[in-house]
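Handout, section B. The chain below has 592 residues.
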Amino acid sequence: MSGTDDKSDVGADGTDRTRAGSGGTGTGGTGPGTGGTGTGTGGTGPGTGADTNTGPAPGADAASTPGAGGDGTGAPPALTTPRGRRPVVAALMLGMALAAIDGTIVSTAVPQIVGDLGGFTVFSWLFSGYLLAVTVTLPLYGKLSDTFGRKPVLIAGIILFLVGSVLCAAAWNMAALIAFRIVQGLGGGALQGTVQTIAADLYPLKERPRIQAKLSTVWATSAVAGPVVGGLLAGYADWRWIFLINLPVGAVALWLVVRHLHEPSRPRPAARPRVDWAGALAVFATGALLLTALVQGGVAWPWLSTPSLGLFGASTVLAALTVVIERRAAEPIIPGWVWRRRTIASVNLALGALGLLMVAPTVFLPTYAQSVLGLGPIAAGFVLSVMTLSWPVTAALSDRVYNRIGFRLTAIIGIGAALLILLAFPLLPYPGEPWHPALLMLLLGAALGLFQLPLIVGVQSTVGWAERGTTTASVLFCRQVGQSIGAALFGAVANGVLAARLLDAPVTGLPDDLDAVARALEDPGSLSAAATDYLRRAVDAAVDHVYLGAAGAAALALLALITLAPRRFPVITEAAEAPRTAGAADRQDTSS
């Protein structure tokens, strides 16, 4: 942990003597985040309301009591009254819907977009460009929200997202559409990070289920509804409406934020806040080059080609330069304490591994369902979507677990169960029944709901207002980077297994990569029965290896929690009896 943290009063029996404030219901506090991949959702279970003057349950995470009126950061925790929170929550849900659905709604309209604008060879950048912009801007928006407040950053993000949507709808060729998708992504990064941070500001620990259950439902619904809505608009209207429908939703969210989100006044800083623009540019350039190498490697060019090696080499040099810049900056975009504090570092690594393992179900399971099981696109989507049904449920109930045994142990149970489920996938019979993988995905969603939310709630609960945006952004950034690494790594694994299986194929002229094999199996009449069966078995083997890789990622997350995460997270709680004015607080570290 950071050297600035004070030690808590821990008794000889190992229990923490520090008590939370007595009586009342706090409206500040912290909360979890949702999102990431299409099915990555969060939530906590039904809360009971008031904080009492009892200490943490045996095995639960320790709570520290801040001083007057704050969470230890000089900022009062309450953003609105309980009644006034409702329109703000509605705005957060709409903002979450914009960010969540945009990642999936474009996918089913690609044929119509390519048919109208051309650019088939580069259409993948419609997704890659958006992902790049979201990922590399997350640290910047996190720091800006801590420096200038959440409201201006969220307003700017919504406006930028809507401007990008209008430009996308007006695109005249594929290059313009890709450029405007990047503009959308610049706004999407502000939406993803700031929505999670405001959710943490709105609710204290015991009340967070109210917001997280709603945000979880929005994300899960958007992940399932996005492709359907996109297909309907592209088929019965025009693909440009995919972007135009963002305007009324975003306009309502913007009005609600401007009208109803009232952040507490903070003391005027002695010096004018300084933005580390050099660090922001360095982080942006490093992330852009690295993610471009990961996304395009093995697709647009071979992994060991000059473009790949050049991008990886340049990103390494820029990463070293970024470290130098950030160490010298007065207010760095990615401060060193993000990695020096055991709690934050362990959560970053664990959720980075989550992004890695989520590639297996979200990217490869639909191919498995269609190519191996012979399902149509809708049925294949259902096999995946069952995970989005169980994930929010267990996340919504996870507080009943972590309030008793602590954040770390709850997450360990969740990722341990996920590890066993991922290892079970290669044991499924060939070809098997559709309910076999559907059942595993239902169980996987339940396990990951128990894993992700306690970590996000826990890590946000260990920092105060002035550090919460940066902390939340670091978690989301690591998960996004993990997702990009997973897509590149597991894509190489799947294609490697296919190449090995097809080397000794019984017939010649078969495709040699996963996408080409999947397209060939969509028209089985062009292949003999033996060739079709051989290709199906090859896809089955490739996806099995991907799931084994995902199990390895789960093992890495488990290892990070066991070896690095503190036994009890040093939770900061609001002193409910204190006046809601700015004041200093003592942070207490029980992470030994």
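Note. DSSP finds 20 helices and four strands in the chain. Compare this with the example in section A.
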